[in-house]
Design goal:
27% helix; 433 residues; 23% strand; single chain; alpha/beta; 5-stranded parallel sheet
Length: 433
């Protein structure tokens, strides 16, 4: 019997557990260690922050789903991983042994790295649904007492889409309330240009997003490094190509939402051979750690080098479909190991992203996510908002049903020629047979 542990119960962890079930042999067991009993659909958090959704709308109680799938579920976070001894220490001090471990924790939100950043200080966040609920309370206060708004991302961020979404959704809701004329808005980002997204752009995301910000009278500052935040004021340094500060901006605000830097979670921090200096898990082309070869990792906690040097540190995002690609490959590779075969399945890391702006939006497809690409396409339109609503309903239903990839989803993606897995070589196929 093999004990397989999935650490994390978010997007990557939940789908990882679902996809592992059919890979098991008789007697094998899956245990999921999550930080809470609930799955949160993070893509809806910008809507929660303006009151378009409630917390209840975007959360799923995983307890019943995991029980139905015969998955052992521990809704408490791990305290420390010991990969040399194949064990995990839980917060109650108990020890849990594993044969295979999949780390899918997502990131630790590094609010403490910038003075005054975060919901316990002077800015709001939409990285967790609880944070988005707090942001909604702040938004309602803004509506009662309008004034300047600063939205964006801090240096070291590797997820820019939600910041753009929230800025434009906020603009949409303020216009609905006839308050937009009383709320000057500034977008602050470490990206070298608007629409870079940590990916050096996809299609014409630069043009599309600049046009959206310009049409909505949202000013922007790129190559921005947030120095400090005090009550009602942000100090941001604009950096030149040589790394020197070319201008310091003092931005007053009544409301601010800033995406924080990401780092690896404390349970794996500093483990030599497992993580990089930021605490992200090192993996090979099969999603497997090179040092501890019974450890795999998927999702935002995976280490991916930046695309290239930028004046201010900019991380590479791990989008939803890219994470699903990692999940499927990992499930196949663990299934192979359970049957005494070598891992032979590689993810494509293709990216499909829907960014909603409240009354429109942008869709982009990057195959693969990192350039150079075979497909590099983006488009915008009012239909994107409806597509995001449909995707939300579909994905939450998928989590509730304990299904990773229904047949019709697989057919649709195949029709669109968007694949999760790289085609195996003839040699690899023969070896698997």
């Amino acid at each position: 019997m093999a004990e397989i542990v999935v650490m994390g119960a978010g997007l990557g962890g939940s789908l990882m557990a679902y996809e592992l079930v059919p890979e098991l042999r008789a007697g094998d067991r899956i245990t999921v260690i999550g930080s809470s009993p609930s799955y949160q659909f993070y893509p809806s958090n910008p809507w929660v922050a303006v009151g378009w959704r409630t917390r209840k709308d975007v959360e799923v109680d995983l307890t019943a789903v995991m029980k139905k799938k015969k998955i052992n579920f521990i809704p408490h976070p791990a305290q420390r991983v010991d990969p040399a001894n194949n064990s995990i220490t839980l917060h109650d001090g108990s020890e849990f042994k594993y044969d295979y471990l999949v780390i899918a924790t997502g990131p630790d939100l590094a609010f403490d790295e910038i003075p005054g950043l975060g919901p316990d200080a002077h800015t709001f966040s939409i990285c967790e649904t609880g944070h988005a609920v707090q942001a909604y309370e702040g938004f309602e206060e803004l509506c009662r007492n309008p004034g300047p708004v600063v939205i964006g991302a801090a240096q070291g961020v590797s997820c820019f889409g939600p910041a753009y979404e929230f800025a434009l959704i906020l603009d949409t809701e303020l216009r609905k309330r006839k308050l937009r004329s009383k709320v000057p808005m500034t977008y602050v980002t470490p990206e070298p240009y608007i629409g870079h997204l940590g990916l050096d752009g996809v299609g014409d995301t630069k043009g599309l997003l600049e046009s959206e910000l310009r049409n909505r009278h949202i000013k922007w500052i790129t190559n921005a490094r947030v120095k400090e935040i005090t009550a009602g004021k942000m100090v941001s340094e604009e950096v030149g190509t040589d790394g020197s500060v070319i201008k310091t901006h003092e931005l007053p605000f009544k409301f601010s939402m800033m995406m924080p830097p990401f780092r690896g979670v404390a349970a794996i921090k500093g483990i030599e051979g497992l993580v990089n200096p930021r605490g992200f898990v090192l993996i090979d082309e099969y999603q497997r750690n090179p040092t501890f070869q019974n450890v795999f990792s998927v999702g935002v906690c995976v280490a991916i080098p930046p695309i290239g040097p930028t004046p201010v540190p900019v991380g590479v995002p791990k989008t939803g479909f890219m994470i699903e690609s990692m999940v499927t490959a990992t499930a196949h590779n663990i299934g192979a190991l359970l049957r005494n075969r070598a891992p032979d399945t590689k993810p494509t890391w293709n990216a499909v992203c829907i960014a909603d702006f409240g009354d429109g939006g942008v869709v982009f497809v990057a195959q693969p996510q990192l350039p150079p690409r075979d497909v590099n396409w983006s488009a915008d339109g009012k239909w994107v908002h409806l597509a995001k609503i449909g995707f939300e309903k579909y994905f939450i239903r998928k989590i509730k049903g304990g299904t990773s990839e229904p047949v019709y989803e697989k057919f649709m993606m195949k029709t669109m020629k968007i694949h999760k897995l790289k085609q195996k070589t003839t040699q690899a196929r023969h070896a698997a047979e």
